[in-house]
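A quick word before the example. In earlier lectures we treated sequence and structure as two separate objects. From today on, think of them as two lines of the same record. Here is SufE family protein written that way.
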Amino acid sequence: MSIEVIQEELIDEFSMFDDWMQRYEYMIELGKSLPLIDQNLKTDDKLIKGCQSKVWLHSEMRDGKIVYTADSDAIITKGIVAILVRAFSNQKPQAILNAKTDFIDEIGLKEHLSPTRANGLVSMIKQMKLYALAYQTQL
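And the structure line, produced from the sequence above:
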């Protein structure tokens, strides 16, 4: 499934909710379903800089596609990273590098996050794209 299709699914899922409390609850549920990062990978070099909460992000190449795993010590932040992992995991590096992130605005995520969480969101996307760039140069 392409990044664009997954992003459309996410937009559709979030549009089912009438208010932001329901969307936050859904985001928390997504965070609970996040494939957990191996405890051995929760190291300082996997921490995303620019996040108020601790967010660990790991990536590896499998069959030419990047697989991300992540975790956070905050439930909302864990939900945010779960959305990004769902959108970008199991994709080729070039697809991740070319991917637009407009779906975040369409969900309304940025405008409903505190400035520090919004900065963290940008940092998460940046780190995912940096991993993709690193893998792309190895191909």
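Notice the following. The two ends are 21 Å apart (CA to CA). We will return to this example when we discuss secondary structure assignment.
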